[in-house]
From TrEMBL:
<feature type="transmembrane region" description="Helical">
    <location>
        <begin position="359"/>
        <end position="379"/>
    </location>
</feature>
<keyword id="KW-0812">Transmembrane</keyword>
<feature type="transmembrane region" description="Helical">
    <location>
        <begin position="385"/>
        <end position="403"/>
    </location>
</feature>
<protein>
    <submittedName>
        <fullName>Uncharacterized protein</fullName>
    </submittedName>
</protein>
<feature type="transmembrane region" description="Helical">
    <location>
        <begin position="119"/>
        <end position="142"/>
    </location>
</feature>
<keyword id="KW-0472">Membrane</keyword>
<keyword id="KW-1133">Transmembrane helix</keyword>
<feature type="transmembrane region" description="Helical">
    <location>
        <begin position="248"/>
        <end position="269"/>
    </location>
</feature>
<feature type="transmembrane region" description="Helical">
    <location>
        <begin position="174"/>
        <end position="191"/>
    </location>
</feature>
<feature type="transmembrane region" description="Helical">
    <location>
        <begin position="328"/>
        <end position="347"/>
    </location>
</feature>
<feature type="transmembrane region" description="Helical">
    <location>
        <begin position="203"/>
        <end position="228"/>
    </location>
</feature>
<feature type="transmembrane region" description="Helical">
    <location>
        <begin position="149"/>
        <end position="168"/>
    </location>
</feature>
Protein backbone atom coordinates (compact mmCIF):
# COMPACT_ATOMS: atom_id res chain seq x y z
CA UNK A 1 0.00 0.00 0.00
CA UNK A 2 1.42 3.40 -1.04
CA UNK A 3 1.84 6.30 1.37
CA UNK A 4 -0.95 8.17 -0.43
CA UNK A 5 -3.32 5.23 -0.01
CA UNK A 6 -2.43 4.99 3.68
CA UNK A 7 -3.16 8.70 4.16
CA UNK A 8 -6.51 8.38 2.40
CA UNK A 9 -7.40 5.31 4.48
CA UNK A 10 -6.56 7.21 7.67
CA UNK A 11 -8.74 10.14 6.62
CA UNK A 12 -11.65 7.85 5.77
CA UNK A 13 -11.24 6.09 9.13
CA UNK A 14 -11.26 9.43 10.99
CA UNK A 15 -14.35 10.61 9.09
CA UNK A 16 -16.11 7.30 9.79
CA UNK A 17 -15.30 7.58 13.51
CA UNK A 18 -16.45 11.21 13.58
CA UNK A 19 -19.69 10.22 11.84
CA UNK A 20 -20.42 7.49 14.38
CA UNK A 21 -19.76 9.86 17.29
CA UNK A 22 -22.04 12.53 15.78
CA UNK A 23 -24.77 9.96 15.15
CA UNK A 24 -24.52 8.70 18.72
CA UNK A 25 -24.59 12.27 20.06
CA UNK A 26 -27.70 13.02 18.00
CA UNK A 27 -29.58 9.98 19.31
CA UNK A 28 -28.58 10.71 22.90
CA UNK A 29 -28.91 14.50 23.03
CA UNK A 30 -31.77 15.31 20.65
CA UNK A 31 -35.10 15.51 22.56
CA UNK A 32 -36.94 13.01 20.33
CA UNK A 33 -38.01 10.92 23.32
CA UNK A 34 -39.79 13.96 24.76
CA UNK A 35 -41.34 14.67 21.32
CA UNK A 36 -39.68 18.09 21.21
CA UNK A 37 -37.86 17.82 17.86
CA UNK A 38 -40.80 18.90 15.70
CA UNK A 39 -41.35 22.22 17.47
CA UNK A 40 -41.28 25.95 16.58
CA UNK A 41 -39.91 26.45 13.04
CA UNK A 42 -39.34 22.71 12.58
CA UNK A 43 -43.08 22.15 13.01
CA UNK A 44 -43.82 24.59 10.17
CA UNK A 45 -41.28 22.95 7.84
CA UNK A 46 -42.75 19.56 8.77
CA UNK A 47 -46.47 20.21 8.23
CA UNK A 48 -46.38 19.25 4.54
CA UNK A 49 -45.43 15.65 5.35
CA UNK A 50 -48.17 14.48 7.76
CA UNK A 51 -50.77 16.57 5.93
CA UNK A 52 -49.99 14.92 2.58
CA UNK A 53 -48.91 11.38 3.49
CA UNK A 54 -51.02 10.60 6.56
CA UNK A 55 -54.04 12.90 6.39
CA UNK A 56 -54.29 12.93 2.56
CA UNK A 57 -54.83 16.67 2.91
CA UNK A 58 -51.97 18.40 1.03
CA UNK A 59 -53.82 21.72 0.89
CA UNK A 60 -54.71 21.76 4.61
CA UNK A 61 -58.46 21.89 4.03
CA UNK A 62 -59.41 19.46 6.80
CA UNK A 63 -57.30 20.92 9.61
CA UNK A 64 -59.09 22.78 12.39
CA UNK A 65 -58.44 26.54 12.86
CA UNK A 66 -56.70 25.80 16.17
CA UNK A 67 -54.27 23.37 14.52
CA UNK A 68 -53.68 25.68 11.59
CA UNK A 69 -52.64 28.48 13.95
CA UNK A 70 -50.23 26.19 15.81
CA UNK A 71 -48.61 25.09 12.56
CA UNK A 72 -47.70 28.67 11.62
CA UNK A 73 -50.07 28.93 8.69
CA UNK A 74 -52.20 31.92 7.79
CA UNK A 75 -55.14 32.80 5.58
CA UNK A 76 -54.16 33.74 2.03
CA UNK A 77 -55.80 36.51 -0.06
CA UNK A 78 -58.26 33.96 -1.49
CA UNK A 79 -59.21 32.56 1.93
CA UNK A 80 -57.20 29.33 1.88
CA UNK A 81 -54.46 28.17 4.25
CA UNK A 82 -50.92 29.19 3.31
CA UNK A 83 -47.75 27.89 5.01
CA UNK A 84 -45.07 30.35 6.10
CA UNK A 85 -42.15 28.09 5.17
CA UNK A 86 -41.52 26.66 1.71
CA UNK A 87 -41.49 22.88 1.25
CA UNK A 88 -37.76 22.33 0.62
CA UNK A 89 -36.98 20.96 4.08
CA UNK A 90 -40.00 18.65 3.89
CA UNK A 91 -38.68 17.28 0.58
CA UNK A 92 -35.27 16.68 2.14
CA UNK A 93 -36.83 14.94 5.15
CA UNK A 94 -39.24 12.80 3.13
CA UNK A 95 -37.13 9.57 3.11
CA UNK A 96 -36.61 9.81 6.87
CA UNK A 97 -40.28 10.57 7.48
CA UNK A 98 -41.25 7.45 5.54
CA UNK A 99 -38.86 5.40 7.65
CA UNK A 100 -40.47 6.67 10.85
CA UNK A 101 -43.92 6.20 9.32
CA UNK A 102 -43.30 2.54 8.44
CA UNK A 103 -41.97 1.87 11.94
CA UNK A 104 -45.01 3.52 13.56
CA UNK A 105 -47.33 1.46 11.33
CA UNK A 106 -45.64 -1.76 12.45
CA UNK A 107 -45.70 -0.93 16.17
CA UNK A 108 -48.88 -0.48 18.20
CA UNK A 109 -47.04 1.54 20.85
CA UNK A 110 -46.84 4.67 18.69
CA UNK A 111 -49.45 6.93 17.16
CA UNK A 112 -49.45 7.07 13.35
CA UNK A 113 -49.85 10.85 13.31
CA UNK A 114 -46.53 12.20 12.02
CA UNK A 115 -45.50 13.48 15.46
CA UNK A 116 -44.94 10.46 17.73
CA UNK A 117 -41.50 9.24 18.76
CA UNK A 118 -40.56 7.37 15.52
CA UNK A 119 -41.22 10.49 13.47
CA UNK A 120 -39.38 12.69 15.95
CA UNK A 121 -36.32 10.43 15.82
CA UNK A 122 -36.48 10.19 12.02
CA UNK A 123 -36.50 13.97 11.56
CA UNK A 124 -33.71 14.34 14.11
CA UNK A 125 -31.56 11.78 12.28
CA UNK A 126 -32.08 13.62 9.01
CA UNK A 127 -30.24 16.64 10.42
CA UNK A 128 -27.15 14.74 11.51
CA UNK A 129 -27.18 12.72 8.28
CA UNK A 130 -27.10 15.87 6.15
CA UNK A 131 -24.43 17.36 8.39
CA UNK A 132 -22.20 14.29 7.95
CA UNK A 133 -22.77 14.06 4.20
CA UNK A 134 -22.11 17.78 3.87
CA UNK A 135 -18.80 17.40 5.69
CA UNK A 136 -17.79 14.50 3.43
CA UNK A 137 -18.55 16.44 0.23
CA UNK A 138 -16.75 19.47 1.65
CA UNK A 139 -13.69 17.32 2.37
CA UNK A 140 -13.68 16.10 -1.23
CA UNK A 141 -13.93 19.70 -2.48
CA UNK A 142 -11.14 21.01 -0.24
CA UNK A 143 -8.80 18.18 -1.27
CA UNK A 144 -8.62 19.67 -4.76
CA UNK A 145 -6.80 22.71 -3.37
CA UNK A 146 -5.36 21.66 0.00
CA UNK A 147 -3.59 18.62 1.38
CA UNK A 148 -5.53 15.69 2.78
CA UNK A 149 -4.57 16.61 6.36
CA UNK A 150 -5.57 20.28 6.01
CA UNK A 151 -8.88 19.30 4.41
CA UNK A 152 -9.60 16.79 7.16
CA UNK A 153 -8.79 19.24 9.96
CA UNK A 154 -10.96 21.88 8.32
CA UNK A 155 -14.09 19.74 8.23
CA UNK A 156 -13.45 18.57 11.81
CA UNK A 157 -13.29 22.19 12.96
CA UNK A 158 -16.42 23.07 10.95
CA UNK A 159 -18.23 20.04 12.36
CA UNK A 160 -17.62 20.64 16.06
CA UNK A 161 -16.46 24.27 16.18
CA UNK A 162 -19.55 26.00 14.76
CA UNK A 163 -23.25 26.13 15.57
CA UNK A 164 -23.82 23.59 12.80
CA UNK A 165 -23.05 21.12 15.60
CA UNK A 166 -25.86 22.45 17.80
CA UNK A 167 -28.45 22.38 15.01
CA UNK A 168 -27.45 18.85 13.98
CA UNK A 169 -27.30 17.37 17.49
CA UNK A 170 -29.48 19.27 19.96
CA UNK A 171 -32.10 21.29 18.04
CA UNK A 172 -32.77 19.37 14.86
CA UNK A 173 -35.31 19.47 12.05
CA UNK A 174 -34.42 22.94 10.77
CA UNK A 175 -33.18 24.08 7.36
CA UNK A 176 -29.52 24.73 8.10
CA UNK A 177 -28.04 21.19 7.94
CA UNK A 178 -29.97 20.70 4.67
CA UNK A 179 -28.49 23.84 3.13
CA UNK A 180 -25.01 22.93 4.37
CA UNK A 181 -25.25 19.54 2.67
CA UNK A 182 -26.76 20.84 -0.57
CA UNK A 183 -24.18 23.60 -1.00
CA UNK A 184 -21.27 21.25 -0.24
CA UNK A 185 -22.62 18.68 -2.72
CA UNK A 186 -23.15 21.40 -5.34
CA UNK A 187 -19.56 22.63 -4.98
CA UNK A 188 -18.36 19.09 -5.60
CA UNK A 189 -20.69 18.52 -8.54
CA UNK A 190 -19.91 21.81 -10.31
CA UNK A 191 -16.18 21.05 -10.32
CA UNK A 192 -16.92 17.59 -11.67
CA UNK A 193 -19.31 19.02 -14.30
CA UNK A 194 -16.75 21.55 -15.55
CA UNK A 195 -14.24 18.74 -16.02
CA UNK A 196 -16.66 16.57 -17.98
CA UNK A 197 -20.12 17.85 -18.86
CA UNK A 198 -22.94 15.33 -18.93
CA UNK A 199 -26.66 15.93 -19.33
CA UNK A 200 -27.52 14.00 -16.17
CA UNK A 201 -25.03 16.08 -14.19
CA UNK A 202 -26.68 19.25 -15.50
CA UNK A 203 -30.15 18.09 -14.45
CA UNK A 204 -28.81 17.03 -11.04
CA UNK A 205 -27.12 20.43 -10.59
CA UNK A 206 -30.39 22.15 -11.42
CA UNK A 207 -32.27 19.95 -8.96
CA UNK A 208 -29.78 20.75 -6.18
CA UNK A 209 -29.96 24.47 -6.98
CA UNK A 210 -33.75 24.26 -6.91
CA UNK A 211 -33.67 22.53 -3.53
CA UNK A 212 -31.22 25.09 -2.14
CA UNK A 213 -33.62 27.89 -3.07
CA UNK A 214 -36.67 25.94 -1.92
CA UNK A 215 -35.11 25.22 1.48
CA UNK A 216 -34.52 28.96 2.04
CA UNK A 217 -35.37 31.35 -0.81
CA UNK A 218 -32.59 33.79 0.19
CA UNK A 219 -30.14 31.05 -0.78
CA UNK A 220 -30.57 32.11 -4.40
CA UNK A 221 -27.70 34.50 -3.60
CA UNK A 222 -25.33 31.52 -3.63
CA UNK A 223 -25.35 31.61 -7.43
CA UNK A 224 -23.14 34.74 -7.35
CA UNK A 225 -20.06 33.25 -5.62
CA UNK A 226 -20.55 29.94 -7.43
CA UNK A 227 -20.00 31.69 -10.77
CA UNK A 228 -16.75 33.27 -9.53
CA UNK A 229 -15.41 30.38 -7.50
CA UNK A 230 -14.35 28.01 -10.27
CA UNK A 231 -12.50 30.39 -12.58
CA UNK A 232 -8.81 29.52 -12.69
CA UNK A 233 -6.17 32.26 -12.79
CA UNK A 234 -4.80 31.25 -16.21
CA UNK A 235 -8.24 31.26 -17.87
CA UNK A 236 -9.56 34.47 -19.42
CA UNK A 237 -13.07 35.59 -18.53
CA UNK A 238 -14.33 35.13 -22.08
CA UNK A 239 -13.07 31.55 -22.16
CA UNK A 240 -14.45 30.85 -18.67
CA UNK A 241 -17.93 32.15 -19.56
CA UNK A 242 -17.93 29.97 -22.66
CA UNK A 243 -16.95 27.02 -20.48
CA UNK A 244 -19.87 27.79 -18.16
CA UNK A 245 -22.64 28.50 -20.65
CA UNK A 246 -21.76 26.53 -23.79
CA UNK A 247 -23.13 24.28 -25.12
CA UNK A 248 -26.35 26.03 -24.09
CA UNK A 249 -28.26 22.75 -23.95
CA UNK A 250 -26.52 21.97 -20.65
CA UNK A 251 -27.71 25.29 -19.21
CA UNK A 252 -31.26 24.47 -20.31
CA UNK A 253 -30.93 21.11 -18.54
CA UNK A 254 -29.89 22.91 -15.34
CA UNK A 255 -32.92 25.20 -15.63
CA UNK A 256 -35.17 22.20 -16.25
CA UNK A 257 -33.83 20.36 -13.20
CA UNK A 258 -34.41 23.38 -10.99
CA UNK A 259 -37.88 24.02 -12.41
CA UNK A 260 -39.04 20.44 -11.80
CA UNK A 261 -38.01 20.68 -8.14
CA UNK A 262 -39.67 24.07 -7.59
CA UNK A 263 -42.84 23.18 -9.55
CA UNK A 264 -44.71 21.55 -6.61
CA UNK A 265 -44.22 24.73 -4.57
CA UNK A 266 -45.52 26.89 -7.44
CA UNK A 267 -48.60 24.67 -7.78
CA UNK A 268 -49.21 24.81 -4.03
CA UNK A 269 -48.94 28.61 -3.98
CA UNK A 270 -51.21 28.95 -7.02
CA UNK A 271 -53.94 26.81 -5.50
CA UNK A 272 -53.65 28.23 -1.98
CA UNK A 273 -53.02 31.91 -2.75
CA UNK A 274 -54.00 32.51 -6.36
CA UNK A 275 -50.40 33.48 -7.28
CA UNK A 276 -47.53 31.42 -8.65
CA UNK A 277 -45.08 33.29 -6.41
CA UNK A 278 -46.26 34.36 -2.98
CA UNK A 279 -44.59 36.25 -0.11
CA UNK A 280 -45.47 34.21 2.97
CA UNK A 281 -44.03 36.43 5.70
CA UNK A 282 -46.81 39.01 5.85
CA UNK A 283 -45.72 42.20 7.62
CA UNK A 284 -42.21 40.87 8.27
CA UNK A 285 -39.55 42.32 6.01
CA UNK A 286 -36.18 44.00 5.48
CA UNK A 287 -35.00 47.47 6.49
CA UNK A 288 -32.36 48.13 3.86
CA UNK A 289 -31.35 51.53 5.23
CA UNK A 290 -30.76 50.18 8.72
CA UNK A 291 -28.77 46.92 8.64
CA UNK A 292 -27.49 45.55 11.95
CA UNK A 293 -24.23 44.08 10.68
CA UNK A 294 -22.15 45.03 13.72
CA UNK A 295 -24.73 43.58 16.11
CA UNK A 296 -25.06 40.46 13.97
CA UNK A 297 -21.32 39.87 14.19
CA UNK A 298 -20.31 41.13 17.63
CA UNK A 299 -23.37 41.54 19.89
CA UNK A 300 -23.73 39.26 22.88
CA UNK A 301 -27.33 38.57 21.94
CA UNK A 302 -26.48 36.58 18.81
CA UNK A 303 -23.11 37.76 17.44
CA UNK A 304 -21.56 35.35 14.94
CA UNK A 305 -18.04 35.98 16.20
CA UNK A 306 -19.14 35.72 19.85
CA UNK A 307 -20.95 32.39 19.61
CA UNK A 308 -18.90 30.98 16.70
CA UNK A 309 -15.47 32.55 17.32
CA UNK A 310 -13.86 30.06 14.94
CA UNK A 311 -15.24 32.13 12.05
CA UNK A 312 -13.37 35.24 13.21
CA UNK A 313 -10.26 33.06 13.18
CA UNK A 314 -11.18 31.86 9.67
CA UNK A 315 -11.33 35.42 8.31
CA UNK A 316 -7.60 35.76 8.87
CA UNK A 317 -7.21 32.97 6.33
CA UNK A 318 -8.39 35.27 3.53
CA UNK A 319 -4.84 36.59 3.17
CA UNK A 320 -3.46 33.09 2.67
CA UNK A 321 -6.36 32.24 0.37
CA UNK A 322 -5.44 35.15 -1.91
CA UNK A 323 -2.00 33.64 -2.41
CA UNK A 324 -3.26 30.10 -2.99
CA UNK A 325 -6.31 30.72 -5.20
CA UNK A 326 -7.23 34.32 -6.01
CA UNK A 327 -10.70 33.53 -7.36
CA UNK A 328 -11.67 31.81 -4.10
CA UNK A 329 -10.62 35.00 -2.33
CA UNK A 330 -12.55 37.32 -4.66
CA UNK A 331 -15.67 35.15 -4.66
CA UNK A 332 -15.88 35.21 -0.86
CA UNK A 333 -14.75 38.84 -0.54
CA UNK A 334 -17.54 39.86 -2.92
CA UNK A 335 -20.25 37.57 -1.52
CA UNK A 336 -19.73 37.74 2.26
CA UNK A 337 -20.43 41.50 2.76
CA UNK A 338 -23.50 41.26 0.51
CA UNK A 339 -24.86 38.24 2.36
CA UNK A 340 -24.21 39.83 5.76
CA UNK A 341 -25.92 43.05 4.64
CA UNK A 342 -29.05 41.23 3.46
CA UNK A 343 -29.12 38.81 6.41
CA UNK A 344 -28.85 41.51 9.06
CA UNK A 345 -31.25 43.90 7.33
CA UNK A 346 -34.08 41.57 8.34
CA UNK A 347 -36.36 43.21 10.91
CA UNK A 348 -35.44 40.58 13.52
CA UNK A 349 -31.72 40.55 12.82
CA UNK A 350 -31.27 38.10 15.74
CA UNK A 351 -33.79 35.71 14.11
CA UNK A 352 -35.83 35.00 17.21
CA UNK A 353 -34.84 32.25 19.59
CA UNK A 354 -31.64 30.67 18.34
CA UNK A 355 -28.10 29.73 19.27
CA UNK A 356 -25.83 32.33 17.73
CA UNK A 357 -26.28 33.56 14.16
CA UNK A 358 -27.88 30.38 12.86
CA UNK A 359 -28.60 31.82 9.41
CA UNK A 360 -24.85 31.96 8.76
CA UNK A 361 -24.55 28.18 9.09
CA UNK A 362 -25.69 28.15 5.48
CA UNK A 363 -22.46 29.76 4.21
CA UNK A 364 -20.05 27.50 6.12
CA UNK A 365 -19.04 25.62 2.93
CA UNK A 366 -17.76 28.95 1.55
CA UNK A 367 -16.06 29.86 4.84
CA UNK A 368 -14.26 26.51 4.85
CA UNK A 369 -11.89 27.86 2.17
CA UNK A 370 -10.33 30.69 4.23
CA UNK A 371 -10.33 28.43 7.30
CA UNK A 372 -8.38 25.80 5.34
CA UNK A 373 -6.07 28.53 4.06
CA UNK A 374 -5.27 29.62 7.61
CA UNK A 375 -4.71 26.05 8.83
CA UNK A 376 -2.42 25.50 5.83
CA UNK A 377 -0.42 28.59 6.82
CA UNK A 378 -0.21 27.45 10.45
CA UNK A 379 1.21 24.06 9.45
CA UNK A 380 4.07 25.76 7.66
CA UNK A 381 5.25 27.33 10.93
CA UNK A 382 7.53 25.76 13.51
CA UNK A 383 5.23 26.82 16.33
CA UNK A 384 2.12 25.38 14.67
CA UNK A 385 1.16 23.28 17.69
CA UNK A 386 1.06 26.39 19.88
CA UNK A 387 -1.07 28.35 17.39
CA UNK A 388 -3.48 25.42 17.03
CA UNK A 389 -4.42 25.96 20.67
CA UNK A 390 -6.48 28.97 19.51
CA UNK A 391 -8.92 27.12 17.20
CA UNK A 392 -9.03 24.18 19.61
CA UNK A 393 -10.09 26.56 22.37
CA UNK A 394 -12.78 27.99 20.08
CA UNK A 395 -14.04 24.44 19.50
CA UNK A 396 -14.21 23.91 23.26
CA UNK A 397 -16.15 27.16 23.72
CA UNK A 398 -18.60 26.16 20.99
CA UNK A 399 -19.21 22.71 22.45
CA UNK A 400 -19.64 24.07 25.98
CA UNK A 401 -21.96 26.87 24.90
CA UNK A 402 -23.98 24.39 22.82
CA UNK A 403 -24.48 22.38 25.99
CA UNK A 404 -25.38 25.54 27.94
CA UNK A 405 -27.93 26.61 25.36
CA UNK A 406 -29.48 23.14 25.21
CA UNK A 407 -29.93 23.30 29.00
CA UNK A 408 -31.57 26.75 28.76
CA UNK A 409 -28.66 28.44 30.52
CA UNK A 410 -27.82 30.74 27.61
CA UNK A 411 -31.04 32.63 26.97
CA UNK A 412 -32.68 32.13 23.60
CA UNK A 413 -33.05 35.85 22.71
CA UNK A 414 -32.18 38.10 25.66
CA UNK A 415 -28.43 37.74 26.24
CA UNK A 416 -26.35 40.79 27.20
CA UNK A 417 -22.65 41.36 27.81
CA UNK A 418 -23.24 41.28 31.58
CA UNK A 419 -25.26 38.07 31.37
CA UNK A 420 -22.75 36.43 29.03
CA UNK A 421 -19.86 37.34 31.32
CA UNK A 422 -21.69 36.00 34.36
CA UNK A 423 -22.48 32.62 32.83
CA UNK A 424 -19.41 32.14 30.63
CA UNK A 425 -18.32 28.47 30.78
CA UNK A 426 -20.31 27.86 33.97
CA UNK A 427 -22.34 24.72 34.56
CA UNK A 428 -25.01 26.54 36.56
CA UNK A 429 -26.85 29.87 36.42
CA UNK A 430 -25.80 32.34 39.16
CA UNK A 431 -28.69 34.09 40.91
CA UNK A 432 -27.82 37.53 39.50
CA UNK A 433 -27.79 36.25 35.91
CA UNK A 434 -31.51 36.55 35.16
CA UNK A 435 -31.67 40.19 36.16
CA UNK A 436 -28.89 41.00 33.68
CA UNK A 437 -30.87 39.89 30.62
CA UNK A 438 -32.90 42.18 28.37
CA UNK A 439 -35.75 41.18 26.08
CA UNK A 440 -35.64 42.37 22.44
CA UNK A 441 -38.13 45.06 21.47
CA UNK A 442 -40.02 42.97 18.93
CA UNK A 443 -42.82 45.50 18.41
CA UNK A 444 -40.66 48.43 17.31
CA UNK A 445 -38.17 46.22 15.47
CA UNK A 446 -41.00 44.83 13.33
CA UNK A 447 -42.50 48.26 12.71
CA UNK A 448 -39.41 50.46 12.32
CA UNK A 449 -36.39 48.15 12.18
CA UNK A 450 -35.10 49.76 15.40
CA UNK A 451 -35.48 48.73 19.04
CA UNK A 452 -36.54 51.69 21.15
CA UNK A 453 -36.80 50.18 24.62
CA UNK A 454 -34.78 47.73 26.70
CA UNK A 455 -37.07 45.29 28.46
CA UNK A 456 -36.41 42.96 31.41
CA UNK A 457 -37.48 39.36 30.90
CA UNK A 458 -40.63 39.71 33.00
CA UNK A 459 -42.54 37.08 31.08
CA UNK A 460 -39.85 34.42 31.37
CA UNK A 461 -39.83 31.90 34.21
CA UNK A 462 -37.00 33.26 36.36
CA UNK A 463 -35.77 30.50 38.69
CA UNK A 464 -36.38 31.15 42.35
CA UNK A 465 -33.88 28.51 43.41
CA UNK A 466 -30.15 28.82 43.91
CA UNK A 467 -27.17 26.56 43.30
CA UNK A 468 -27.20 25.77 47.01
CA UNK A 469 -30.82 24.59 46.68
CA UNK A 470 -29.81 22.31 43.81
CA UNK A 471 -26.93 20.77 45.75
CA UNK A 472 -29.08 20.24 48.85
CA UNK A 473 -31.73 18.47 46.77
CA UNK A 474 -29.09 16.30 45.09
CA UNK A 475 -27.78 15.19 48.49
CA UNK A 476 -31.33 14.46 49.65
CA UNK A 477 -32.10 12.27 46.63
CA UNK A 478 -28.87 10.33 47.18
CA UNK A 479 -30.20 9.26 50.60
CA UNK A 480 -33.35 7.80 49.02
CA UNK A 481 -32.40 4.35 47.66
CA UNK A 482 -35.50 3.94 45.48
CA UNK A 483 -35.22 7.44 44.01
CA UNK A 484 -31.51 7.22 43.23
CA UNK A 485 -32.07 3.76 41.70
CA UNK A 486 -34.57 5.30 39.26
CA UNK A 487 -32.01 7.97 38.36
CA UNK A 488 -29.32 5.32 37.76
CA UNK A 489 -31.63 3.32 35.48
CA UNK A 490 -32.52 6.47 33.53
CA UNK A 491 -28.82 7.33 33.18
CA UNK A 492 -28.06 3.82 31.94
CA UNK A 493 -30.93 3.97 29.45
CA UNK A 494 -29.72 7.33 28.07
CA UNK A 495 -26.04 6.36 28.24
CA UNK A 496 -25.32 9.47 30.33
CA UNK A 497 -23.57 9.96 33.65
CA UNK A 498 -25.63 9.59 36.82
CA UNK A 499 -24.50 13.03 38.03
CA UNK A 500 -25.70 14.71 34.82
CA UNK A 501 -29.11 13.03 34.86
CA UNK A 502 -29.49 13.69 38.59
CA UNK A 503 -28.72 17.39 38.22
CA UNK A 504 -31.11 17.81 35.28
CA UNK A 505 -33.80 15.98 37.23
CA UNK A 506 -33.40 18.29 40.23
CA UNK A 507 -33.56 21.41 38.04
CA UNK A 508 -36.71 20.02 36.43
CA UNK A 509 -38.24 19.48 39.88
CA UNK A 510 -37.60 23.10 40.86
CA UNK A 511 -38.70 24.58 37.53
CA UNK A 512 -41.95 22.65 37.59
CA UNK A 513 -42.51 23.47 41.26
CA UNK A 514 -42.47 19.84 42.36
CA UNK A 515 -40.39 20.88 45.37
CA UNK A 516 -40.00 24.12 47.33
Amino acid sequence: MTKQKIKEFRSVAVIALMSLILLWQNIEQSPWREKEVIQTDAKVYHIYLPATIINKDPFLELETPDKIKRYGTHTSPIGRNAVKMSMGVAMMNLPFFYGGHLYALSNDNYAVDGYSEPYQLAISLSSVFYMIMGLIFLWLVLKRTFSDLISLLTILFIGVGTNLYYYSIYETGLSHPCTFFLLSALLYLIHNWLSQKKMWKSILMGAILGLIVLVRPINILFILPLILLFKTQDLKWSAYLKQLFLPFSYVLAIVLGGFLIILPQLIFWKIQTGSLVYYTYGDEGFFWSNPHIWEGLFSFRKGWFIYTPLMLFALYGMVRLYKIQKMYFWAIAFFLPLFLYITFSWWSWWYGGSFGARTLIDILPFMAFPLAGLIDWIFQKRWRLIILIIPLYFVYVNLYQSWQYSHKMLHYDSMTFEGYKTIFLKHYTPDEYWGQLRKPDYVNALKYGIEKVSLPILNDPVPTFSEEDIQNMIEYIKTDEKWIKEIELKAMDRNQSVDSVLRNHVIWLFENKKVK
